[in-house]
Amino acid sequence: MLAKAKKELTPAGTLRAGVNLGNFLLVNKDAASAELRGVVPDLARELARRLDVQVELVRYPGAGQVADGAKSGAWDVGFIGAEPQRAEEIAFTAAYLEIPATYLVPAGSPIQSLAEVDRPGIRIAVAARSAYDLYLSRSLQHAQLVRAEGLEGSYDLFVAEKLEVLSGLLPRLASDVARLPGARILEG
């Protein structure tokens, strides 16, 4: 079984792992050494150790670019959210973790619940090609998604354009809400 996995996962003899640098919960770059640290680099290194091969961390600025790397065969394993759209080209394993995503609304917003977001005239800032962008693209019927590059880009767009809603990973929104007096995170 190990020999079969090694053959499938390391056709070039090295485990090439696609890493999404845009998710600070899973990967961070050491300021002094530029070495990648966190859950994803640790998982990739442990998989390589078990396969008895070297690991190469293939860096991408966001999840969408990691997914693009699958098309060109740039990596052997990647660490991104499983989405039906991505599953057309990528075989996903069972989830290794779940990260909650939700919405943040600015001070004074009349929006009180998740159910009130998908309405005409509601503009939602979202990190382009993130897992929650793909989910919202499939699910929303009335609200408009306004895309930006990365988590910080979606926050900046939300603030600059005075959008009604910011979508994102709950841990990131928890830090964003602290930067916006009166803003609220919607439950659920």
Keywords:
22% strand; 188 residues; alpha/beta
Report on the structure:
With 188 residues, the chain is an alpha/beta fold. It has helices at 2-9, 39-51, 63-72, 84-87, 131-139, 150-160, 170-179, and strands spanning 14-20, 28-29, 36-37, 54-60, 77-78, 101-105, 123-127, 144-148, 165-169, 184-185. The strands form three sheets. A five-stranded mixed β-sheet has the order 8-7-9-6-10, sandwiched between helices. It has a three-stranded parallel β-sheet with strand order 4-1-5, with helices on both faces. Strand 2 (28-29) and strand 3 form a beta hairpin. The relative contact order is 0.16. The model has no long low-confidence stretch (mean pLDDT 92).
Question: Any chance you could write out the topology, listing elements then pairs?
Answer:
Layout: H1 2-9, E1 14-20, E2 28-29, E3 36-37, H2 39-51, E4 54-60, H3 63-72, E5 77-78, H4 84-87, E6 101-105, E7 123-127, H5 131-139, E8 144-148, H6 150-160, E9 165-169, H7 170-179, E10 184-185
Helical content class: 25-40%
| First and last CA, distance | 41 Å
Which structural class do the helices and strands define? alpha/beta
Could you tell me the mean pLDDT? 92
What is the radius of gyration? Answer: 18 Å
Share of residues in strands: 15-25%
Helix run count:
7
Number of strands: 10
Quaternary status: single chain
Order of helices and strands: HEEEHEHEHEEHEHEHE
Low-confidence stretches: none
Largest sheet: 5 strands, mixed
What is the approximate shape? elongated
Major sheet: arrangement of strands: 8-7-9-6-10
